[in-house]
Amino acid sequence: MTSDSSTPERILNDVDAFDRAFIDLNDRLGRYDDTDRDAAEIAALLELAPGARVLDAACGTGRMGAALQALGYEVVGADISREVIAEAERRSPGPTYIVADLTKPLELPPFDAVVNTYSSWGYGKTVEDDQQMLRVWNQALKPGGRLLMELSDLERSRHRLGTSGDVVTRVTNDVEEKLWVDWSTGMLHVTYSLDGVSVPIQIRMYEREDLQRMVSEAGFRDALLYGGYDRHEKRPEDRAVVVATR
């Protein structure tokens, strides 16, 4: 199932920036090794009823959506890239996949939950584009439906990279990462490199207070922020888990 609603001018990176090369690099980094466990913890955190309808928003290659589908939920995975959706259908069968610009309303039956994981938000061309995506997710939910976002925030970047704005280089499993933050805009710039292949990515990050405020302004209530799916209080080194209710 596809849609022609993509509007690349509203996103920071190329539509196909998160293509097979990016996927292979992040597989090499071990980013997704705990997906099955994470899916079970997400289902428990959101208190999903058996058979609940879940939107895997900005699904990438469908790792999380497929894991949730395997737990008995009805999952729709949405991403702006046709190439990435084709890879999801190949790698992670089970969910229904659609190509969709998530700044535009989804003409689908309402969902019990919207799940957005692996820092898959913050790629709007502007802050307003990021905000509009939150509004779309709110509209996609049933009353009482719940949103879960899992992402890195500015507090974590300060902890990991410092505040000088200098480029930090790391090598993990032969993958080189060059990272720097433009602190005037909150923009993280990352270039992944392996065997002569380089993938540059930008992502806009936010303070924890801004994340909760934006979620609330999109129409959600009870916007809570944790340091993990187990609901522990967030520490500077933790990724942020935001949970809210329509």
Protein architecture, described:
This protein has 246 residues and is an alpha/beta fold. It has one domain: Rossmann fold (3-Layer(aba) Sandwich), CATH 3.40.50. The chain has 7 helices and 11 strands. A hairpin with a 2-residue loop joins strand 8 and strand 9. The longest helix has 14 residues.
Short characterization:
The protein contains seven helices and eleven strands.
**What structural class should be given to the helix and strand makeup?**
alpha/beta
Strand content: 25-35%
CATH class category label:
Alpha Beta
CATH fold-level name: Rossmann fold
Supply the key terms.
alpha/beta, globular, Rossmann fold, 246 residues, seven-stranded mixed β-sheet, disordered N terminus, four-stranded antiparallel β-sheet
Blueprint (SSEs and pairs):
Layout: H1 20-29, H2 35-46, E1 53-57, H3 63-70, E2 74-79, H4 82-91, E3 96-99, E4 111-116, H5 127-140, E5 141-151, H6 154-161, E6 168-172, E7 175-182, E8 187-194, E9 197-204, H7 208-217, E10 221-226, E11 240-245
Parallel strand pairs: 1-2, 1-4, 2-3, 4-5
Antiparallel strand pairs: 5-11, 6-7, 7-8, 8-9, 10-11
Helix pairs in contact: 2-3
